Amino acid sequence: MSQSKPLAGVRIVEFASFVAGPSAGLALSQLGAEVIRVDPLGGNADYRRWPLSNRTGESLYWHSLNRGKKSVALNLREAAGRELLLRLATAPGPDAGIVVDNAVGRNWFSYDALRALRDDVISVRVEGRADGGPAVDYTVNGGSGVANMTGPAYTDAPVNHVLPAWDFLCGQEVVSGVLAALRRRDRTGVGALIQVALSDVAMATVADLGWYSEAAERGDRARHGNHLYGSFGVDLVTGEGDHIMIVTLTPRQWQAVGTATGTTEVFAALAASLGADFGTDEGRYAHREVIEAVLKPWFAAHTTAEVEAALTAAGVLWGPYKSASEVAAEFAAHPEHEPVLTAVEQPGIGGVISSSSPMRIDEEYSGSAPAAVLGADTEPVLAEVLGLDDAELGRLRDTGVI
Amino acid sequence: MSQSKPLAGVRIVEFASFVAGPSAGLALSQLGAEVIRVDPLGGNADYRRWPLSNRTGESLYWHSLNRGKKSVALNLREAAGRELLLRLATAPGPDAGIVVDNAVGRNWFSYDALRALRDDVISVRVEGRADGGPAVDYTVNGGSGVANMTGPAYTDAPVNHVLPAWDFLCGQEVVSGVLAALRRRDRTGVGALIQVALSDVAMATVADLGWYSEAAERGDRARHGNHLYGSFGVDLVTGEGDHIMIVTLTPRQWQAVGTATGTTEVFAALAASLGADFGTDEGRYAHREVIEAVLKPWFAAHTTAEVEAALTAAGVLWGPYKSASEVAAEFAAHPEHEPVLTAVEQPGIGGVISSSSPMRIDEEYSGSAPAAVLGADTEPVLAEVLGLDDAELGRLRDTGVI
């Protein structure tokens, strides 16, 4: 069954920091590309980003986002170091000359500067705002409208997401951009400048859900806590205090809730008395609070194991809540339960919980690999890609360029 | 500057519902592919998903996620309808034979069934869990650990995200999978089965941040509300009650906050008295509450416009909070401020707020297009792709297959 990885032979140069660009490089590496990450000597601004390992002080974050890549470190304050990066990014070959960066505002690394060295270069660039303004995930989230919809119904303060969702989505857009531009270059010989602004990712995504059109028609929807919008779904608490999310997006899922909890007749009588139809999304959403109230006692009267067994037996669509430490503990005890997670021995840190790409190709996970020690591949990459010999490498070392 | 769209000539068949699969089809369409969405007669389970338009009752959600695609509607309860879908998905041609679906558990649409008709078919499949269990965004989110980290510091109940982030990320993985598999097929002639489970997307993403490794080392981090983890960033409230998010990920960004708010000397004295170094991420994070408290009065003493002007002048990294209706109102007044958003006249609804892809290719946005009326393209697509003639189409109509 096993074939070659789909991007085997493709070389990407990544010159990026924080989440968006590095997550793109990670995904491209998991698809089989050779990803050469270039950092300034000593590391980029994200090299010490939290969380740090208690064991060694190294960044669990940086070493997770940069695994499976080659690491080149260059003195980018020197023209000679910059020139090496430009030459790596524009090296010849049909499967090279592709660069991912977030180096907005650095004229020496502009698309024109890259094109001057390779006319058909593919430059994919992560930006803050498309108008050139600075932005990061945490500053664009509020502007998208999402923070004002998130959180408990009783608060009217915005609630930030903790997951940098816009960053990761932007990173995946970068992957699509690389692959789409490479396909066009293969066919037509033309390169591409592809720009993805975090702010645009956020606004386009919210627009794709129809939420701005909704707000234009009738103003902002009320904040509704953990309730699913437009149907019935909410978290309920078992007798052991565990939260369980249940979701009913179809009539069958709704019927299953009644079956599992023995409330079918209660809801039939309730619907009749309210003149409501709980078989519809609208009916369930309108009466979500009373539905929740009717279900609460059953959840509270059962253990978590009883609740889970009954929900599963009846075909309810449900999911548990776990803390990150519970996920970690379950992985330690039963790694086979979540095969997308993998144990990796990370130089500089020790054993870490890593992951495959979520994409299984021909029924196989990608597996994982550690991050390279910063700069570990500088000399081999310069030798292999740029053809530098030992004397030239020695000179670069002596002059502090590498 | 304008070149052909990168996926011009590629044909994708989409047989999917809700967010993940349809968002992938939308993105592929924005890259220039011909996307043929197939629905059961009358629409799939998401055809009436909220938000609905007040004007006509049609789904703003469905019509946003399915724009720019051709719409084919088939009676999939009949073998003849299923056969048409299978033939569309496996039609010949180097740029065809690619299908995106979330039809888990339908044996008649299995990879083997597709391969029997076209050996090199590319089948990209959205799943709930990789083990075959059902899951949607709202049930996997709790299991990832993220809901337990999100929300105000004073609550210990999980806070669901409102954005279906895992769905959208999964959709982008699907796009990458399509393009990577197509590249491999172009080179080697082999097709691919690519599976992406929502649950795996969530767990892999959290692992990519190092958060499970962190929890394995030292348990769960404390919930910290809207504060940025591992440095200083939080929302502050202006004299007009508007929230403003500020972020300091670098020493320069931190210095800018002092400059903008006139607090440089206060923080110098405070750091000395605390024995802290606010120039480091660690120092700012450890003392985030007192930093916030020192900044609050300045924000409260200024109008929103004054705050924004001072922050921008000093080079602070900041962003406003807006509600969705504020985004919509600003778009109506100044569409040029957010050029990723576009106005589209949607048949069946009227004017809506739509968007381009966030990816600008050669400095151009993709633009937007309305969704087709359900089934509007059934006959032309069957004629063009499968070569059915008028007599055959008439028979399909008469027997209720189309």
Describe this structure in words.
The structure is a homodimer of 402-residue chains. Chain A has 402 residues and is an alpha/beta fold. Chain A has 2 domains: 2-207 and 358-398, Crotonobetainyl-coa:carnitine coa-transferase, domain 1 (Rossmann fold, 3-Layer(aba) Sandwich); 232-320, formyl-coa transferase, domain 3 (2-Layer Sandwich). Chain A is 41% helix and 16% strand. Chain A has 16 helices and 12 strands. In chain A, the strands form 3 sheets. In chain A, strands 3-2-1-4-5-6 form a 6-stranded parallel sheet, sandwiched between helices. In chain A, strands 7-8-9 form a 3-stranded antiparallel sheet. Chain A has a two-stranded antiparallel ribbon with strand order 10-11. In chain A, helix 1 packs across helix 6 (165-188) and helix 9 (251-261) packs across helix 13. Chains A and B meet through helix 1, helix 2, helix 5, helix 6 and strand 6 of A and helix 1, helix 2, helix 5, helix 6 and strand 6 of B. Strand 12 of chain A pairs antiparallel with strand 6 of chain B.
Strand content of chain A: 15-25%
**Low-confidence stretches of chain A at least 5 residues in length (pLDDT < 50)?**
none
Secondary-structure class of chain A: alpha/beta
User: Helix tally of chain A?
Assistant: 16
What portion of residues of chain A is helical? Answer: 40-55%
Strand count, sense and barrel status of the largest sheet of chain A are: 6 strands, parallel
| Overall pLDDT score of chain A | 97
What's the order of the H and E elements of chain A? EHEHEHEHEHHEHHEEHHHHHEHEEEHH
Distance between the termini of chain A: 43 Å
Shape of chain A: elongated
CATH architecture of the largest domain in chain A: 3-Layer(aba) Sandwich
CATH class of the largest domain in chain A: Alpha Beta
Assembly type of the shown chains? Answer: homodimer
